[in-house]
Amino acid sequence: MIRVLLVDDHEMFRHGVAALLATTDDIEVVGEAADGSELLRIAGNLHPDVVCMDVSMPRLDGIEATRQLLERQPDVKVIGVSALIDRSYVRDLLSAGAVGYIAKASAGEEVRRAIRTVTQGKTYLCPNVLEVVTDTVRNPPDPAAGSIVQLSARERQVLILVAKGCKSNEIAAHLNIAPATVDVHRRNIMRKLDLHNVADLTRYALRVGLVSG
Fold first, then answer.
1. Residue 3: beta bridge partners?
2. Can you list the pairs that 124-128 forms with residues at least 24 positions away whose Cβ atoms lie under 8 Å?
3. What pLDDT, in 10s, does the model give residues 169-184?
4. Mean pLDDT in residue range 144-163
5. What is the average pLDDT score of the chain?
6. Nearest one of 76, 11, 20 to 47, comparing CA atoms
7. CATH code for the domain of 100
8. pTM value?
9. 15 pLDDT exceeds 60?
10. Rounded CA separation 83/100 (Å)
């Protein structure tokens, strides 16, 4: 039996995936967590074989949670299950140690397939994510992308959403943070990247491949 722990700040999504997996004979959902901090609190007692990890979560995002989890439990297989399939998130989660990444839009049978694949010691990327990875290899981001490392995971999330035209209140709702916090992140991003307005941020995100034109 494959022991699975679901980590996502959207309770209905977690319950939906749990219900789907409950119909299988070889997979058991042993727990759920609403963010990375809760995951780290409970994973040691639950001993999951696989963690299905959202990337964008409050308090502790999936990238840092993956890194910290694998430092404690290196045998766990982490699969990213996220609405965010921008190349930076895919790259960062895989670099943190994840062995799979699937888009929420394609979740369903794909979740079962991914879980079974990674427990066989293989990597699993859904077609949408594989396309992003392939495009990154064929069209490497501008060298200026190196400056993106100055940004925290949350700042990269805000930058992507700003570049996609989202307003502060929309970003706040998406990331489950206050609009004032969004404005603070945006000012910090501009300072770190030496950019001065939303148009500059959008051009930068396009240039380094955080969003597509």
1. 28
2. 124/79, 124/99, 124/100, 125/90, 125/100, 125/101, 126/101, 126/102, 128/85, 128/103
3. 999 988 888 888 998 8
4. 76
5. 86
6. 76
7. 3.40.50.2300
8. 0.70
9. yes
10. 14
Give the pLDDT mean for 99-116. 90
At residue 40, the pLDDT reads 96
Instruction: Give the C-alpha distances (Å, rounded to integers) separating 131 from 15, 32, 87, 104, 128.
Output: 28, 30, 10, 15, 5
Number of domains in the chain: 2
Last residue of one domain, picked from the residues 104, 136, 168: 136
Whether residue 121 sits in one domain with residue 29: yes
Looking at the DSSP assignment, which residues form a beta bridge with residue 78? 51
pLDDT band at 28 (very low <50, low <70, confident <90, very high): very high
Nearest C-alpha neighbor of 13 from the set 130, 129, 105? 105
The residue type found at 114 is A
User: Which letter does DSSP use for residue 212 in this model?
Assistant: -
212 belongs to a structural domain? no
Residue 119 covered by a domain = yes
Q: Which segments of the chain does DSSP mark as H helices, in order? A: 11-21, 36-46, 62-72, 87-95, 109-118, 127-138, 153-163, 168-175, 179-193, 198-207
Query: Residue 191 is part of a domain; what is its CATH number?
Result: 1.10.10.10
Contact 98, 122 (CB under 8 A): no
Q: 3-class DSSP state for residue 89?
A: helix
